[in-house]
Amino acid sequence: MARLDTTRCNLTAFRKATRRVSQLYDELLAPSGLRGTQRAILVHVARSQSSTIGELAAALVLDRTALTHNLKPLQRDGLVTVAADKDDRRSKRVRLTKRGESKLAESQDAWRQAQDRFEAAFGARQAAELRQTLELVAALEFGEPMPAAPPG
Amino acid sequence: MARLDTTRCNLTAFRKATRRVSQLYDELLAPSGLRGTQRAILVHVARSQSSTIGELAAALVLDRTALTHNLKPLQRDGLVTVAADKDDRRSKRVRLTKRGESKLAESQDAWRQAQDRFEAAFGARQAAELRQTLELVAALEFGEPMPAAPPG
DNA sequence: TCCATATATGTGTATATGCACCTATTGCCA
DNA sequence: TGGCAATAGGTGCATATACACATATATGGA
């Protein structure tokens, strides 16, 4: 029964929840001029000093080309720089600018408010547990489907 | 310490996990020509027979205008119809077409495979629990921030 | 040394998502 | 009944995300 029961679709559940949480964070971050995703990128860049596009994309569980696109507005606004690595000119290093550091600091209070508001509604302890679960999901390896006849 | 610790940002955790799960579902759904979100919309429409834009958006925890945009390719491909309600011409009713029903049925196996693959990696019981948690998050009410002085 | 291959990234296109602003109906009330 | 507020949607713009395809650089073996 209930072959089409939406409540059983894992992806739909993830998307609905993420949309709801995004709405909260983006609303509070709006005055700072940063979106949630943009702030996450800046935070990753700040923590790694300088990483390549590929490294950054992997850390964000984001498609490499999506990251390239997402970096555009950040470069345009002078928050990050993207320059070829001098040892391997195929790679590019993403670095936070002074302005990027400032913007990140400037958005800190709004982010804190979003965190507090979420955790007031959902529970701080529950939030911490859920974050761990979500990080686990983000790192999941979904193997290829079982072939009809295994070799050997 | 760790004021910028990314692992503590709830939104980032949600986004990473959702991207990962989306990648799995979209990969398996690709042959059917449907994206995960598109399938979710068709499922909701199928279950409600005919709902308005607003009702559908609320059910999907999706901004009204985002849904309008998302419906465009589905209309173009003849999977749904959107027509003014005859009793209240402000409202529009979204309905599944025969072709939409077929497409939904056609994508059923791929969706089932995605569900199975996710649950093989994450655990079926854990997935069921997580879905409940995510639905709860999607329905959260984040009140306005506490004013400095409560009335009375 | 030269070229095939592997690695790292960018571009164009399509969908996903939400905000600001605009239009069309409906309801209500003076 | 005339008109304004409330309700339901749409459009344009900007960002978010990923795939197919194209480009540039590095590497290793013949």
From TrEMBL, chains A, B:
Name the UniProt record assigns to this protein: Transcriptional regulator SlyA
SUPFAM superfamilies: Winged helix' DNA-binding domain (SSF46785)
Protein's organism: Bradyrhizobium ivorense
Pfam families membership: HTH_27 (PF13463)
Gene3D superfamilies referenced in this protein's UniProt entry, alphabetically: Winged helix-like DNA-binding domain superfamily/Winged helix DNA-binding domain
Region (Disordered): 88-109
Gene Ontology MF terms: DNA binding; DNA-binding transcription factor activity
The organism's place on the tree of life at top rank: Bacteria
Encoding gene (name): slyA_9
InterPro entries per record: HTH_MarR-typ, WH-like_DNA-bd_sf, WH_DNA-bd_sf
Positions of the HTH marR-type domain: 1-139
Keywords, comma-separated and alphabetical: DNA-binding, Transcription, Transcription regulation
